[in-house]
Hints:
Helix content of chain A: 25-40%
Number of helices of chain A: 4
Largest sheet of chain A: 5 strands, parallel
Radius of gyration of chain A: 12 Å
Structural class of chain B: alpha/beta
Strand content of chain B: 15-25%
Mean pLDDT of chain B: 90
Shape of chain B: globular
Largest sheet of chain B: 5 strands, parallel
CATH architecture of chain B: 3-Layer(aba) Sandwich
Largest interface: A-B, 20 and 27 residues
Oligomer: heterodimer
Radius of gyration of chain B: 18 Å
CATH class of chain B: Alpha Beta
CATH class of chain A: Alpha Beta
Structural class of chain A: alpha/beta
Strand content of chain A: 15-25%
CATH superfamily of chain B: DsrEFH-like
Shape of chain A: globular
Distance between the termini of chain B: 46 Å
Number of strands of chain A: 5
Number of strands of chain B: 5
CATH architecture of chain A: 3-Layer(aba) Sandwich
Number of domains of chain B: 1
Mean pLDDT of chain A: 97
Order of helices and strands of chain A: EHEHEHEHE
CATH topology of chain A: Hypothetical Protein Ychn, Chain: A
CATH topology of chain B: Hypothetical Protein Ychn, Chain: A
Low-confidence stretches of chain A: none
Number of helices of chain B: 5
Distance between the termini of chain A: 21 Å
Number of domains of chain A: 1
Amino acid sequence: MALLHTVNKSPYQCNTLESCLQHVGEGDVVLLIEDGVYAAVKGGKASEMLAQAQGVKICALSADVKARGLTGKLMDGIEVVDYGGFVDLVVETDKTQAWL
Amino acid sequence: MAGPPVMPANNKNTCGVSVKQQLAGDEPVKLGIVVLEGPYQHEAADTAYNFAVAALEKGHEIFRIFFYHDGVNNATRLMVPPQDDRHIQKRWSELAEKHNLDLVVCVAAAQRRGIMDEEEQKRHGKDANNIAPGFRISGLGQLIEAGIQCDRLVFFGD
C-alpha cells in the first residue's frame, strides 16, 4: 500500500521530515509543501537526509517553491508538481498522511 | 497468475464499511478535506483552498470540507482583511456556492471560539451570530462520515 506523506515544516524548524522519513515504505511518496520545501534546497543539511531515502519519490509543490524564491535551487531528483499534481498524488496513492 | 482481489459485489467488508479501492489516475474520486488552522496565521487555509480548487478543476468530487480546531475561524463573515489581501472566508463561501460544497464547522470548536449560527446564538443567549454563507455548524460525526464515505481524506494544518 503506497502512502502520500505531506510535510509542511522546514526541517530547520522541527523534525517532522525526519520522523516521516523514518516511517516511509517502499513506493511511498513524500510531498514537501509550504515551508517543507526548504528541505530540498541543494547543499542544505536536510538534502542529505532526502538523498538517503531509498525507493521513495520526493516531490515539492511548485507554488511553494516559487513563493520562497527556490526555483532552480533544489537538489537533483526532486519532482516539482503543481496543485493539480498534488491532487493526482492523493488519488494515485492509497492514503494521505499529513505530518503536522 | 493472481487476478484482481475478489471483493464482495457491494464493496462492503464484513464491518459494513466501504472498501477503499485502488483508483486509476483519471477516474473521478470523492475527496474529503480537513482544515485545522485559522486564516492568516498559518498557510494551511490557503493550501487547502488551492488544493480544493485544483481537485474540482480535475473533475473530482469534494464530499465535504470539515473545519476543526482553529480552522473554525475560517467561517466568520465578520473578518475584514485589507482590500489588497485575499478574503479567505469569502473565497470559501464563493467556492461552496459555485460547486455546491458542504462546508462543516465543528460545533465544540466553534463554541469555544465564538463562531455562531442563529440556532447557537439562541441556545447560548448571545446577542449576535457570525457564520458565513455556505458554512454550517455540526458535529464530529460529520468528520467520521467523511472518513467513511470518501475515497481520500486530506488534512491541512500547522
